[in-house]
Amino acid sequence: MSGVNVPKLRVKPKKIKGISPCAVEMSSLVTCWASTSIDDARCAEVAKNLISCMQKAKAPGKARSSVNFHLARLGKQVLGK
C-alpha cells in the first residue's frame, strides 16, 4: 500500500451552547439601567452582584473527545499501516 493516498478519518465535535452563569444578574443590571439612568445609585447593588458572580464563575474546561484518537488507531489497523 505504499504510495496510496489514504484520507484521514476525522469527526467534527458537536458545539454545545451553554447558558451563561451570570445571565440573570446581567439582565437585572440592564433592566435597572433601562428603568433609571446608568449613573443611578440604585443600580450599584445590582452591579456589585454581577461583578461578584463574574468573579466566582470559572470558564468551562474544554471537554476532549477520544473519537478521533480511536479512529486514527483503528484506521492504522484497518488500512494496514
Automatic annotation (TrEMBL):
Q: Which SUPFAM superfamilies does the protein's record reference?
A: Cysteine alpha-hairpin motif
| GO MF entries | structural constituent of ribosome
* GO term, biological process aspect, one: mitochondrial translation
Q: From what superkingdom does this record's organism come?
A: Eukaryota
Q: Name one GO cellular component term.
A: mitochondrial small ribosomal subunit
* Name listed for the protein in its UniProt record: CHCH domain-containing protein
What organism is listed for this UniProt entry?
A: Linderina pennispora
